[in-house]
Amino acid sequence: MAIHSSKLFSIATGSSEPIYRQLVDQAQRLVAGGQLAPGDAMPSVREVAQALALNPMTVSKAYGILELEGVLTRKRGMGMFVADAPKGTHSVASRIELLRPTLERAALEARQLELDHDTVLTLFTKLLKEKQ
To answer: In the chain, how many domains are there?
Structure first.
């Protein structure tokens, strides 16, 4: 069963991170976190491009990178699917590494805003609890 693209990806248009990289990172996190399981059908390039108002080449580039990295696999005539995960890909350490760039950006913004550690950690703890 294919996953609906508008629920799968969200794009931060004002981000300095390229859109294709946002798509790649989100897909990696969804696979590592188990929200996307091996064998799940991915929405087509066209569906993602239309749902998010993106150039299809941007989505195609992201899918190509995910395929090269072994996250997705192409089934001829059927589309892209989540690949079988090699052992260790969903380890805590690998998931932490996927989260690290996001936390580094948040830490940089907190320093730029001159927020103290306790305030930032309190906010982060509150946000973690809200999403449960």
So the answer is: 2
If asked whether residues 72 and 43 sit together in one domain, one would say yes
What's the 3-state SS for 55-67?
A: CHHHHHHHHHHHH
pLDDT in tens, 19-47: 999 999 999 989 888 889 999 999 999 99
Per-position b or e across 87-103, b if 16+ CB within 10 A of its CB: eeeeeeeebeeeeeeee
Question: Can you give the CATH number for the domain in which 36 is found?
Answer: 1.10.10.10
82 has which bridge partners? 72
Neighbours of 51 (CB within 10 A): 16
Does this model's pTM top 0.85? My answer is no
Residue numbers of the chain with a pLDDT score lower than 50: 1
Q: Are residues 21 and 71 in the same domain?
A: yes
